[in-house]
Design brief:
Length: 68
Amino acid sequence: MAFLFFTCPATHRQAPTGIETNVQSLQAAWKATLKVNCPHCGEMHEISVRETYINGALQDATDRLRNI
Ligand SMILES: [Zn+2]
């Protein structure tokens, strides 16, 4: 499992969504949106799963997903 990250649209800083996922569940949720409490600006952001990313080992797998 790995943590999903997103980029805050207000501060353009990376932040963890607090959601842990793997490639299988990411693929299943690929068209969904997440509501995330942003640690940088304090706002609630609606983030498309497509716009999230995973640091580390699953990066290659998500890159492949994006190319589908
Ligand atoms: Zn934010």
